[in-house]
Amino acid sequence: NATVNKDGKIEGNIKDINSATNAYLFRNENLSLSKDSYIEKKEKNNPGLEIQEYNLFNKENLEEDIKEEYDFVHSNQVETIDGKLYFKPLLFFALEENPFKSENRTYPIDFIFPTNDSFTFTFTIPDGFEIESIPSNISISMVDNIANFKFLAGKVANKIQIVCNFNKNERLYH
Asked: What is the edge-to-edge ordering of all strands in the sheet holding 49-57?
């Protein structure tokens, strides 16, 4: 949940859950870090992000999902052009560039394990602004549904809701 401010900042609350192999990878990469070191790392990887009230649940309980909850302020997500506010609907969770840059691929892509990434965002728009446009809905599937991507956007009053799912149902892609 987030609020877009007239001053170009987005502030809100994030609830992030990593399960199964993603929980293992999170623990493996971050278990040795202190809370302050982890927050510093996350902020460094996302210029303009300030994290407050950070809580981590099930860090050492291997049977449970890793759950992160934190309040945030981001000063690098909104662009103002001619009095209109533009922002990235997936915030700092979106890929900034295509990781597949090779002209020719001679080996399969190995994601190591299948994943299901799901995001739900609700943005509140500031008073005095109206929602002029939102991103188009899209649903794409690969042959035999080995991977699919779905992006849905809707608006009600002064709120925009985004739901995005990216499923990689196989580990190897030829």
From this structure: 49-57, 66-74, 10-18, 2-4, 115-124, 159-168, 147-156, 138-141
Residues with Cβ within 8 Å of 171's Cβ and at least 6 positions away in sequence, in order, are 110, 111, 112, 113, 114
- Threshold 0.85, pTM exceeds: yes
DSSP string, 60-123: S-TTS-EEEEEEEEESSSEEEETTEEEE-TTGGGS-SS-S---SS--S-EE-SS-EEEEEEEEE
21: Cα separation from own chain's centroid: 18
Q: How far from 123 is each of 12, 143, 162, CA to CA, in Å?
A: 9, 34, 8
How would you write the pLDDT of the chain (174 residues) with one tens digit per residue? 999 998 889 999 999 999 999 999 999 999 899 999 999 999 999 999 999 999 999 998 999 999 999 999 999 899 999 989 999 999 989 888 888 888 888 889 999 999 999 999 999 999 999 999 999 999 999 999 999 999 999 999 999 999 999 999 999 988
